[in-house]
Specification:
Layout lengths: L1 H25 L20 E8 L1 H17 L6 H12 L2 E8 L4 H17 L2 E8 L4 E7 L4 E10 L3 E12 H10 L1
Antiparallel strand pairs: 1-2, 2-6, 3-4, 4-5, 5-6
Helix pairs in contact: 1-2, 3-5
Amino acid sequence: MKALKIVLIVVSSLLLIGGAGYLYASSGIKSKPGYATLATPKGNSVNALLSVNVGPGGVKPARWLIDKVVDSSNHVPDVPERILKSALKELQGVQLHVYDVGSNRKVFDNAIADSMAKLKDKSWKTLATVREDDVNIAVLQFGEGAMIAGLSIMASTPEKAVFLNLVGPFDTDALANTARHL
């Protein structure tokens, strides 16, 4: 009986520490200017494969880890990798939702349209939209000029749907260089 109590105390403590860590890692992202309130679909018929919200408290350790791994390797980063690494230095938050579309394609396309309308009402600018047979992609930015505060990418295919929001500030020239090299 005593062993069971100890196990319960240890498990409860780990859950509490893990929950507090997650809350710290995701806190602060909603107060940033580049945070996008995306109209992601919900309900029983929607299957989320991945849902991540990471704020400044979670980005800093991830950035540190990436820097240490890259710096300790013998690999010499090429131009897109260097530009991506410099963009990560400014990253303040990430919101990522990946879904299995199944037979709900229209639900996800509607969520993309709803997100675009809500973001445009909050002064987000459309950078690109692609609507072809099996692809629906929208890319929006918050801010103008050399620095933007946020970038949102939403896409759906017959198999998957992705809603991504990167909170910055980001140098638009660096982003354009990255896009050209990819």
